[in-house]
Amino acid sequence: MPASAAEHRAVVTLPSDTQILIERPFDAPKHLVYKAWTTPELIKRWWNAKRGTVTVAEVDLRIGGTWRWVLMTDRGFEVAFHGEYREIVPDERLVFTEIFEPMPQAGSLNTLTLVEKDGRTMLTILTEHANKSNRDAHINSGMEAGMQDAMDLLEQVASSLTDN
């Protein structure tokens, strides 16, 4: 039986003064969620969050490798993020830095974890900022609405993939 829309909303909590925790279930196995998160042509299908076109999705998926994703919004401005991979456990865990390019001083360290049970995957992202001010700026940026839409698209992309 399909899950209700409410069961597919990401839950955002603030476990500490410097952390943001995002948790969301997916109706897809973890290896396909991971593939959709780490494959440039797939990132371009979901990271736009229904707000424009992803013009850059670069992924050098190795320890010390970098990533950069750029969105040209429907309103005509560019949104760009980049970072470096610190830890990679295929299909299970990614640890990476994340820098919003207009505010490089407010970067974060993110830990993405995928746990599968009965063909469904729980995606968890723990975002750690250097201080409360940066964490609050991130939360107050309006990130949650875009993140919810991006996660919906991520699920669509992941569940459309096959094991080939």
Structural account:
This protein has 164 residues and is an alpha+beta fold. The protein has a single domain (21-159), classed as START domain (Alpha-D-Glucose-1,6-Bisphosphate, Chain A, domain 4), CATH 3.30.530. It has helices at 30-38, 40-46, 132-139, 143-160, and strands at 11-13, 19-26, 52-59, 66-73, 78-89, 93-100, 108-117, 120-129. An 8-stranded antiparallel beta sheet has the order 1-2-8-7-6-5-4-3. α1 (30-38) packs across α2 and α1 (30-38) crosses α4 (143-160).
Name the strands of the widest sheet in spatial order.
1-2-8-7-6-5-4-3
Shape assignment = globular
Low-confidence stretches: 1-5
Q: Superfamily at the CATH H level?
A: START domain
Number of helices: 4
From the 3D coordinates, which CATH architecture would you assign? 2-Layer Sandwich
Share of helical residues = 25-40%
Average pLDDT confidence is: 93
Topology:
Blueprint: E1 11-13, E2 19-26, H1 30-38, H2 40-46, E3 52-59, E4 66-73, E5 78-89, E6 93-100, E7 108-117, E8 120-129, H3 132-139, H4 143-160
Antiparallel strand pairs: 1-2, 2-8, 3-4, 4-5, 5-6, 6-7, 7-8
Helix pairs in contact: 1-2, 1-4, 2-4
Short description:
The chain has helices spanning 30-38, 40-46, 132-139, 143-160; strands at residues 11-13, 19-26, 52-59, 66-73, 78-89, 93-100, 108-117, 120-129. It is α+β, with helices and mostly antiparallel strands.
